[in-house]
Design a protein that fits this description.
There is one protein chain. Residues about 1-30 and about 275-300 have low confidence and may be disordered. It contains 6 helices and 22 strands. The longest helix is centred in the N-terminal third of the chain and has 9 residues, at about 60-65. It has a single domain (about 10-415), classed as Porin (Beta Barrel). The strands form 2 sheets. It has a 14-stranded antiparallel beta barrel with strand order 2-4-5-7-8-10-11-16-17-18-19-20-21-22. The protein is globular. It is mainly β. The protein has helices at about 60-65, 70-75, 130-135, 220-225, 295-300, 395; strands at about 10, 40-55, 70, 85-100, 110-125, 145, 150-165, 175-195, 200-210, 225-235, 245-255, 260-280, 285-290, 300-305, 305-310, 315-320, 325-335, 340-350, 355-365, 370-380, 385-390, 405-415. The chain starts with 7 loop residues before the first strand and ends in a 6-residue tail after the last strand.
Length: about 425
Amino acid sequence: MIKFICEISAKRYCVTIIFIFSAINSYTQSIETWNHNGYNAFSTISLEGGYDSDGITSLLLNSFITGGFIDRETRLQSIPGDFSMRNFGARIDGNIDICFPSKLVKKDSLNLFLTYKYENEIAIDFQSDQYKLMFFGNEQFLEDTISLSNLRWNQWNLQSIGIGVYDLKSNNYITTNLYFGQHSRMRIDDGFLYTGTDGRFLHSDISGSYFNSDFNNKNRKSTTGIGLGLNGQYNVLKSNIKSDLIINVQNIGFIIWPKSNKKVSLEENYDFNGIEIRDVFSSELSIDSSATWLGIIDSNVVPTERVELLPTTISGQFRYKVNEKNSIDIVVSSRQINLWRPLFNIGWSHSLNEKLVFGMGIKYGGYGGINYKLRCVYDTQKRWTAGIYINYLQGFISSKGYGGHAGLSVRRRMNFNLEK
């Protein structure tokens, strides 16, 4: 009898779902504005990690991270019933920023701004049958057909270095960035899998495509794309004392994939009837089938050189200062990737004293639904400022919740004397 794995070990599958260590990025949550306290330079290090979904619970995802056996009840919690489409997104971000005065920039309030960014994001769109097939196997689908249509996978791995200018008075900036990255995506437009009686026969028919910028993983340099883009931030209401309207854009640009990258077209059907052992001593196997997956892939691999848009993020934040201690933030974000929905955030911040700010809020959209967030910023009022962020609180406090996120940002202010 032919059937897929029904009992799942998290450690055994950790390679196939390594995306758990990715995270939702900071651009979709809030736009931090910093007080420079009279200093004319600063350096910032920030790191965020997490995930969000409207179809996979935090308990299931955390089980992959910690390892061990994932029981049936845990797997069932993520499929309360049949559904047409669910998605999952994960991302990790790291930033190093350096801002300092330079003779290359003539205006007093403008500084030279250098940045390094690392971004790794994965997005998956799936249906309930596809989830059941992966986590429970195909035994439940004997003499039945399940849909493989609309299954999509998209992953970006980007590193960039940028140079630009930063305005200390308004926190406006713009940088031109050079990008290096890898990209893989898979899309099944139409497809199905049929399991015959007693699981002795499988038949599948798939129509889709697959692209990988590092297809053979042998020569990473030859498959790395190179691109150019802009990043920036502008406060429309910079002269208004009580409110800010900040527009933030990230990764507006393009990337060029060299010809060594591969694109695979999947337009084949596949039958599997069993395995014939011709010689037990030589371990030679003969697969009785109309085609093999390796044959399908080899016959449709096409070297491709192409230009592609970067995954752009555009965010707008309105901040209203109610009084000296309280403010309200409304953030709307849009991303150019898969089924990522526009993200809406509303938050409230309260200054406990001159050094400590506490905030909380609610969000809807992105890769998931409604969730809650917390933030805490401590400013020494001298050289150091640190912020801690939890943007998907529901996943931390409830095993049935969705999403999980944590972030840390540290900034050190300095003074540069150009006369020396």
